[in-house]
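Progress note, sequence design subtask.
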């Protein structure tokens, strides 16, 4: 089978106070939005590197306090994460599926599976109060670090690491990173909302089939339009 063709372009972006020049490579032909997620991960990495330059970051491998927060996931990233999970050995998948089931049960018991009109902030605080570790967290480190969601990449702090475990996170100082993850959510249908990463497997049971296919460059154009609307 012939290798899939790819197209590369150099993005020049002004995001917040940052000027980013970053090469981006995407499939040339029609693909699902999930197939341009790796390109967006590279872009977020570049934005984060620029945002954290010169700052003393407290985040370290083995400190997973922030991995008990509500991680909002779009359909686009969810599809990509399901591919990541599907590629794991069966034994590892079984461990993850059990953790996802436990997280879902904890959210259901706390009546937090559905948003029920709650403001995002209220939902996030209640979620963090449950102390549910992300199913991907292993020994307080991310077990899918190269494939982790965009929003996880964007969260870094300069305050002492101990503060991140506090119930209301008082004194936590996140690095102001322009949120590429928000613009990336615009790749999915407008009728689709985000959901907590802990409900990934639950969502997978009833996920909408199909979905739009566009060329990689068309997806990036759509993403950039979303960026300009937010900026
Ligand atoms: S995906 Fe990884 S970085 Fe993100 S919350 Fe889960 S364990 Fe933490």
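Output:
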């Amino acid at each position: 089978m012939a290798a899939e063709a790819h197209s590369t372009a150099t993005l020049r972006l002004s995001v917040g106070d940052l000027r980013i020049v970053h090469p981006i490579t995407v499939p040339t032909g029609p693909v699902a939005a999930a197939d341009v997620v790796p390109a967006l991960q590279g872009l977020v990495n570049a934005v984060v590197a620029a945002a954290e330059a010169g700052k003393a970051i407290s985040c370290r491998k083995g400190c997973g306090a922030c991995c008990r927060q509500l991680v909002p996931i779009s359909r686009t990233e969810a599809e990509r994460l399901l591919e990541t999970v599907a590629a794991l050995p069966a034994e590892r998948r079984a461990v993850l599926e059990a953790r996802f089931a436990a997280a879902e049960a904890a959210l259901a018991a706390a009546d937090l599976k559905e948003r029920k009109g709650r403001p995002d902030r209220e939902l996030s605080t209640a979620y963090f109060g449950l102390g549910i570790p992300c199913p991907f967290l292993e020994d307080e480190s991310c077990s899918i670090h190269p494939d982790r969601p965009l929003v996880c990449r964007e969260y870094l702090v300069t305050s002492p690491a101990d503060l991140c475990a506090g119930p209301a996170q008082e004194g936590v100082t996140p690095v102001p990173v322009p949120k590429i993850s928000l613009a990336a959510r615009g790749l999915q249908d407008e009728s689709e909302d985000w959901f907590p990463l802990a409900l990934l497997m639950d969502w997978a049971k009833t996920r909408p089939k199909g979905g739009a296919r566009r060329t990689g460059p068309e997806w990036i154009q759509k993403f950039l339009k979303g960026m300009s609307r937010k900026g």
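Residues 6-230 form one domain. Work on this subtask will continue into the next period as scheduled.
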